[in-house]
Specification:
This protein is of the alpha+beta class. The chain folds into two domains: 195 residues, Aminopeptidase (3-Layer(aba) Sandwich); 166 residues, Gcn5-related N-acetyltransferase (GNAT) (Aminopeptidase, 3-Layer(aba) Sandwich), CATH 3.40.630. Helices cover 35% and strands 25% of the residues. It contains 14 helices and 13 strands. Strands 1, 2, 3, 4, 5, 6, 7, 8, 9, 10, 11, 12 and 13 form a 13-stranded mixed sheet that branches. β2 and β3 form a beta hairpin. The longest helix has 18 residues. InterPro entries: Acyl_CoA_acyltransferase (IPR016181), FemAB-like (IPR007434). Keywords: Transferase. This is GNAT family N-acetyltransferase.
């Protein structure tokens, strides 16, 4: 995918093409999501996705920002019942067709929710960077005949509310903002020196609920997945992941669990990967990454037939909390989906906004109208603590 560099942007087709001096100057690898090993692991294990990488530079050719680009096929069938009206409007106006996928160019991390797709070097004019990114994306597509013909839409994801005064610059490039399911965040109280301290902070009703979940899941063993035993667990983990993915409201991409092999080899204990075992059978798995003072939960797998009886998913949520407390972390990002049950363990929503643009002007105007109807799935926020955080 050839693209000529500009005065403000350099383009690369793979992580391996990016010179070491660029990584050294950006100093972005303290954030695991912008570490070469993390990005390369995803790139290596998803051959069905076209990857590209944009490095923005200043007038002295010094790197100012980095953006991960993925080109994916988005299928209408991946949208569940909550998006029926989008399907209807999409068919009516030809935005999304049943017969062929939408070719979507994404700036951001397809497999992680949150601001993990654009890294901006310190002391930069962030609004200027956003505008240069939008121009660089246009250049990437418009100078490549194949991309120009094939790309249907552009998506830049995910931004928290505090960033919108910067990212709303994208509106000037005809991008349409819309809210998506929020990240669910749990702030770890500094007084929680143990999981018992966490339970003690809860109202009686929620503490009883937690203890019931532990009682139901008492026969489940939680085992660490390592580079040595991952081959044993991977087939069943993949099967369980498929079931969870099938229940998701929509998927931008299908995660290849073979990536976990690289994560465990390259990232070691920074990457959390565990299986839940009942009667020698894997009935669930949980994954996540520790970055700075935060534990981000990633993909999970659940045996839904056993979930209610053995409280598998609840046990996972509590185990994430156990890990965070034991490692003296400050926050857990439980990610999107299942917001209500996550709020019952103390998580609160963090709004996320994406920006979408269709390449056809008239279609993009229609898109803007029905994106205004897109709202996160409502849920009943629970307040489990005696003194709410």
């Amino acid at each position: 995918m050839f693209c000529k560099n500009t005065n403000t942007a350099l383009f690369f087709n793979s992580i391996d093409e990016i010179p070491t001096k660029i990584w050294n100057h950006l100093q972005c690898e303290n954030n695991i999501y912008f570490h070469q090993d993390f990005l390369k692991s995803i790139e290596k294990n998803h051959p069905n996705i076209t990857f590209s990488h944009i490095v923005l530079v200043d007038e002295n050719e010094k790197p100012t920002a980095y953006s991960s680009i993925q080109i994916v096929d988005f299928y209408m069938k991946s949208m569940q019942k909550d998006f029926d009206f989008l399907k209807k409007l999409g068919r009516q106006f030809g935005i999304i067709k049943e017969s062929k996928p939408l070719k979507l160019l994404i700036s951001g991390n397809t497999f992680v929710s949150g601001e993990h797709g654009l890294f901006i070097h310190q002391n930069q004019d962030k609004k200027k960077v956003i505008k240069e990114l939008a121009n660089a994306i246009n250049h990437l597509v418009n100078t490549n005949k194949k991309l120009k013909n094939n790309i249907d839409a552009f998506l830049i994801k995910d931004f928290v509310r505090e960033s919108l005064f910067i990212t709303d610059e994208l509106k000037k490039f005809s991008y349409n903002p819309f809210l998506v399911e929020p990240n669910m965040l749990l702030n770890i109280d500094e007084n929680w020196l143990s999981f018992d301290n966490y339970l003690a902070a809860m109202k009686t009703k929620f503490r009883v609920k937690a203890k019931k979940a532990f009682s139901q899941s008492s026969s489940i063993k939680i085992e660490e997945v390592t580079s040595k035993n991952i081959e044993e667990f991977l087939p069943k983990m993949t099967d369980l992941y498929e079931k969870v993915a099938a229940n998701a409201d929509f998927n931008l991409g299908h995660f290849n669990l073979e990536t976990y092999k690289d994560f465990k080899d390259k990232l070691g204990s920074t990457y959390i990967l565990k299986v839940l075992i009942l009667n020698k059978n894997v009935v669930g798995f949980m994954s996540g990454v520790i970055t700075k003072n935060t534990l981000d939960s990633h993909f999970v797998g659940i045996d839904y037939q056993l979930n209610r009886t053995y409280a598998i998913y609840q046990r996972m949520l509590y185990h994430y909390i156990e890990i965070a407390i034991s490692k003296k972390l400050k926050t857990i990002n439980f990610g999107r989906t299942a917001s209500e049950i996550k709020s019952s363990v103390g998580a609160i929503p963090q709004d996320l906004t994406m920006y979408l643009r269709h390449k056809k002007t008239i279609t993009n105007k229609i898109l803007k109208l029905f994106l205004q109807r897109v709202q996160p799935t409502p849920f009943q926020q629970k307040f489990p603590f005696k003194k709410q955080q």
